[in-house]
């Protein structure tokens, strides 16, 4: 198009032709200019700025303390006592580890074989802290006992074995924790006597029946005279 316009301009044009040519050039310029703006608008890219925020969590060191707090310890009868002082301390994670080497434990007054409440002591740099140890009775199997009705004859020995009075199967642990009281039972008189069984804080009362011995019956042998004094009677007559 441009080459065509240049060839036309080389020729001698009339004023009318020059006017038309000028208008055509102007229109063409406007068209080219508009196309350029459109292209620039299409080529324009939108840039997004992405910002990242990094948060670093700062670890705060846990503050340690030298304040000693003791536990209230509970254990069953005949349970061995711990010799580790840490087992008697509360909030052990908050204590300064440097104090453990200076702690001294004393449980000499605790009797693990007897139920009760005892005091133990922890000493730290000549300062004493007292705690409590509760020794509880051992929890026994929760079993209801069935008693027997014991029958004796006057003169028979009074049994002392638990199996003679209790019908329920017993473990060795249960036997060790059963109390049998037969102090009221006598074997020299026909009578009913009570006996008492205590197990797991439950009291049971049974009875022992003492009977007189049955009378013995004489045995008669056939052909034997039942009256041994018969000959004497004849002699006297």
Key phrases:
237 residues, alpha/beta, Immunoglobulin-like, 4-stranded mixed beta sheet, 21% helix, elongated
Present the secondary structure layout.
Layout: H1 2-10, H2 15-43, E1 72-76, E2 103-106, E3 116-124, E4 127-136, E5 150-153, H3 172-176, E6 178-181, E7 191-199, E8 202-211, H4 230-236
Parallel strand pairs: 1-4, 5-8
Antiparallel strand pairs: 2-3, 3-4, 6-7, 7-8
Your description of this structure?
There is one protein chain. With 237 residues, this protein is an alpha/beta fold. Among the domains are: 2-37; 72-136, Immunoglobulin-like (Sandwich); 150-211, no CATH class. It has four helices and eight strands, in the order H-H-E-E-E-E-E-H-E-E-E-H. The chain has a four-stranded mixed sheet, with no helix packed on it. The chain has a four-stranded mixed sheet with strand order 5-8-7-6. A hairpin with a 2-residue loop joins strand 7 and strand 8 (202-211). The longest helix is centred in the first third of the chain and has 29 residues, at 15-43. It is elongated, with a radius of gyration of 58 Å. The N and C termini lie far apart (194 Å). The relative contact order is 0.09. The model has no long low-confidence stretch (mean pLDDT 80).
């Amino acid at each position: 198009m441009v080459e065509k316009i240049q060839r036309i301009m080389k020729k001698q044009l009339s004023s009318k032709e020059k006017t038309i040519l000028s208008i055509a050039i102007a229109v063409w310029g406007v068209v080219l200019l508009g196309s350029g703006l459109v292209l620039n608008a299409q080529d324009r890219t939108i840039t997004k700025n992405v910002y990242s925020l990094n948060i670093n969590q700062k670890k705060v060191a846990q503050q340690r303390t030298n304040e000693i707090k003791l536990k209230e310890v509970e254990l069953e009868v005949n349970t061995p006592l711990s010799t580790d002082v840490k087992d008697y301390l509360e909030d052990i994670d908050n204590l300064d580890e440097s104090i453990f080497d200076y702690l001294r434990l004393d449980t000499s007054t605790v009797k693990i074989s007897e139920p009760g409440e005892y005091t133990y002591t922890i000493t730290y740099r000549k300062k004493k802290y007292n705690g409590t140890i509760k020794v509880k009775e051992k929890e026994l199997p929760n079993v209801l006992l069935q008693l027997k009705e014991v029958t004796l004859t006057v003169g028979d020995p009074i049994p002392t074995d638990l199996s003679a009075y209790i019908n329920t199967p017993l473990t060795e642990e249960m036997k060790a924790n059963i109390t049998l009281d037969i102090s009221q039972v006598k074997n020299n008189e026909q009578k009913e006597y009570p006996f008492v069984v205590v197990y797991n804080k439950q009291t049971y009362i049974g009875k022992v029946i003492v009977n007189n011995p049955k009378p013995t019956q004489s045995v008669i042998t056939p052909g034997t005279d039942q009256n041994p004094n018969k000959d004497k009677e004849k002699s006297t007559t």
